[in-house]
Amino acid sequence: MKQNRIILNALILFAITIIAGGLLGFVYEVTKEPIAHQLALAEFAALEEVAGDVDTFEEIEEIFEDEEGPVLIQQITQSIKDGEVIGYNFVVTTSRAYDGTMTVAVGIGIDGMTNGISIINHTETPGLGSRITDEDFKNQFKDREALEFAIDSGDNPVDSISSATVSTNAVIGAVNRAVDYYHEHLKEAQ
Questions:
Q1: Inside any domain, residue 14
Q2: Is residue 126 part of a domain?
Q3: Whole-angstrom Cα distance, residue 127 to residue 110?
Q4: Do the domain assignments include residue 41?
């Protein structure tokens, strides 16, 4: 009798697990498209923020990039205004963030000046690392010569966010990857 009860409880638990798994799969399928759409909208809004006043974007299909490493360029677009390329926009993902990955949009004009940055997504600590989205922090990357950025040193010093140096370094690493790519592959092509 006791063995039958164990088997019955195991079968009930198995059925509950199958039903829960099926429901989870169903919810995933239902929400997959809306989530992807919202991410695309966020990415487009970030590109608009870092590109400034442009007519359209054209994606650069060929990216000369290693597909491994902690800081990867996911997308590069050209900013087009009145039929002319006026800059480049990078979507860079870094795994060097404090809590997971972070995606940053970086805009660089053809004049070699940064147009700014936008944080597309992050999972940084609220009130600490999440301050990378504050305008005061992001404005440090606006209208600066596209040279390597560093915390409080070099030609492009950036003020670190107090108690969030890892988050600050993750953003700087993403921006520097875009700046390096610009100098290596795009600046000469103009």
A1: no
A2: yes
A3: 35
A4: no
**What pLDDT, on the 0 to 100 scale, is given for residue 62?**
76
Instruction: Please state the φ and ψ torsions of residue 106, each to the nearest 5 degrees.
Output: -130, 130
Q: Give the pair of three-digit tokens for residue 14.
A: 């198995």
Q: What is the pLDDT of residue 189?
A: 61
Q: Does residue 24 belong to any structural domain of this protein? A: no
CB atoms within 10 A of CB 65: 15
pLDDT of 67 > 70? The answer is no
- What pLDDT is attached to residue 1? 67
Give residue 148's domain range: 49-186
Q: What is the pLDDT of residue 24?
A: 95
Average pLDDT along the chain: 88
Please report, for the chain, how many H helices and E strands are present, in that order: 3, 7
Query: How distant, in Å, are the alpha carbons of 21, 23, 37, 55, 114 from that of 28?
Result: 10, 9, 14, 36, 39
Other residues' Cβ atoms within 10 Å of the Cβ of residue 154: 11
Domain count for the chain: 1
Using alpha carbons, list the distances in angstroms from residue 156 to 26, 64, 134, 169, 181. Answer: 49, 25, 19, 13, 17
Mean pLDDT value across residues 85-110? 91
pLDDT at residue 66 in the model: 64
15: its two tokens: 């059925």
**Number of Cα atoms under 13 Å in the Cβ half of residue 144:** 21
According to the model, what pLDDT value does residue 68 have? 67
